[in-house]
Amino acid sequence: MLEPLLQDAQWNDEPISRHSFHQERFSGLNAAQVDFQQVQFQACRFMDCDFSRAGFYQSTLADCDFSNCNFSTSYWKGCHIVRCKGSGADFTHARLKETSLEQVLLCYANFTGSRWERCALSGGSLEEACLASSVLK
């Protein structure tokens, strides 16, 4: 389970590393300022969760739903996001580097002020997403 790991990570200011989560459901989860290193989320659902200022490094989200979650000022490097849904998610001022998004639905997501470097997007949707003041490299 993720909750005890989050508590330890936040208390000890340490990352969550090399864990896998499969078909878990989270509601109101506070993962703000937590770093995730080589973590895999498979078929998980996140409802109203806070990942603001969190870091994701060489991590994978596959077949997950993180709609309406807060990822503002989060950092992503070397991650793979595949067949996920993030409608209405807040990625304001997020930074994505060397991250691939494949078949990801990000309708109505907010990417205002985000920065994308060497990222790959394929087969998904950014319909009605806000990319104002974003930088794409």
Q: Reading side by side through the largest sheet, how are the strands ordered?
A: 1-4-7-9-11-13-15
Largest sheet: 7 strands, parallel
Q: Please give the alpha-carbon distance between the first and last residues.
A: 37 Å
Helicity range: under 10%
Number of strands: 15
Q: Which residues sit in consecutive blocks of at least 5 with pLDDT less than 50?
A: none
Strand content: 25-35%
Total helices: the number is 1
Q: Give the overall shape, derived from the CA principal axes.
A: globular
**What structural class should be given to the helix and strand makeup?**
mainly beta
Mean pLDDT: 96
Radius of gyration over alpha carbons?
A: 14 Å
How are the elements arranged and paired?
Layout (H helix, E strand, L loop, with lengths): L1 H11 L3 E2 L2 E3 L2 E3 L7 E3 L2 E3 L2 E3 L7 E3 L2 E3 L12 E3 L2 E3 L12 E3 L2 E3 L12 E3 L2 E3 L12 E2 L1
Parallel strand pairs: 1-4, 2-5, 3-6, 4-7, 5-8, 7-9, 8-10, 9-11, 10-12, 11-13, 12-14, 13-15
Describe this structure in words.
The protein has 137 residues and is mainly beta. It is 8% helix and 31% strand. The chain starts with a helix and ends with a strand. The mean pLDDT is 96.
